[in-house]
Design goal:
The structure is a homoheptamer of 74-residue chains. Chain A is mainly β. Chain A is built from one helix and five strands, in the order H-E-E-E-E-E. Chain A has a single domain, classed as SH3 type barrels (Roll). The radius of gyration of chain A is 12 Å and the shape is globular.
Chain lengths: 74, 74, 74, 74, 74, 74, 74
């Protein structure tokens, strides 16, 4: 039942560009550097998007897992 | 009392198309690839719906379990 | 003190029709197939109600426990 | 320090009529049949009240503990 | 570091009148009979206040800890 | 990695005046008497502030940790 | 799978200036002195920002982890 696990799938996105959407509606795109079982995430080359437009650049960002809704490889 | 468990039922939808509704009202349809005991889910061929209409396609998506209300096989 | 436990009571509704109300105000009626200690629930023959009227039919549905307020046998 | 514990006090209401108020403002009155350490509760002869008036009768109801604010014997 | 602990301080209010404020803004005054590590509380001679005025009397009340903001001896 | 821990830092404020801000926007100033790993806190000589003005005095107050955003020595 | 962990990444910001954004929209900039596995954080030389402008200075601040969305080195 556990041969295919969500964190294994997430691991395949390590080093790749992902889109992350938060509970407050914010969207970030960046390179997935690290994550843990709480889905705490570290992104590099982070861009915050608003309506698909670049809002600001953040360099590296630690995002607390309990604020995340969805992580999708770009 | 545990002969029929919710996660066993969910396991029968693995590899099949499911509808997922989130606490923020968003709806996603996709192929259920993986889930864990937190109900973290990985979907493939993901489509986000709005009022039953396709809003966007996402490829693969990791959805954090604590944002999910309902998962229903299509 | 634990001779009568809530999950034992819920177990008596297994295979029977129940009404489930969620924190977001949604109401579902269906046959209670499975539940676990988190009150994750699987219903069959699911109907979503709105103001007592049928809104849609869902077949089977996995409902995440932390969204549930009340489960009442019909 | 634990000679008088909240769950012991709650246990004295078993089999008696209690008022339960939820985080969403709903009020239920019924016979307390069972509860557990999560304060999941089962009531019998349940009546939902609105502004002190009977809104509907529910028979038996399982109420998830994390939705409950207060339980008071009537 | 743990010589003075919050629950020890709370224990000194046992049998005394306390004011409890909840996340939903409600205020209760009563005699603190019991509490546990979740800060579940049992009050006796409970009065609910609104803008400092008595709104209703409740006798005994079990208050779930995760709804409580502050407990202050009167 | 753990040579400097947040609770050690908090411990240095024991017996001193701190400002505490809650998730609901309330502000309290008082002497930090006790705290635990949940960040449950006991303050003495408590003053509730509103827009920097004294709103009321509370004597001693137990504040549940999960309502706290920030604690800052004054 | 765990060779690169989010807390290791966060540890590289110790002693450096970081931007922290909270669930309630508040922004703080300060020197990261300490954090733990709950992402409880202690900042020094804290400045609260509003629309990029300095709102107030706080000296040292303990920020409870469950209020934090993002931590980004400046």
């Amino acid at each position: 039942m556990e041969t295919s696990r969500p964190l294994d799938s997430l691991n395949q996105s390590r080093g790749k560009r992902v889109l992350i959407e938060l509970k407050n509606g914010k969207q970030f795109v960046g390179i997935l550097q690290a994550f843990d079982i709480h889905i705490n995430v570290v992104l590099d080359e982070v861009e915050e998007l608003e309506n698909g437009e670049l809002k600001r650049k953040l360099g590296t960002a630690f995002i607390r897992g309990d604020t995340i809704i969805i992580i999708s490889p770009q």
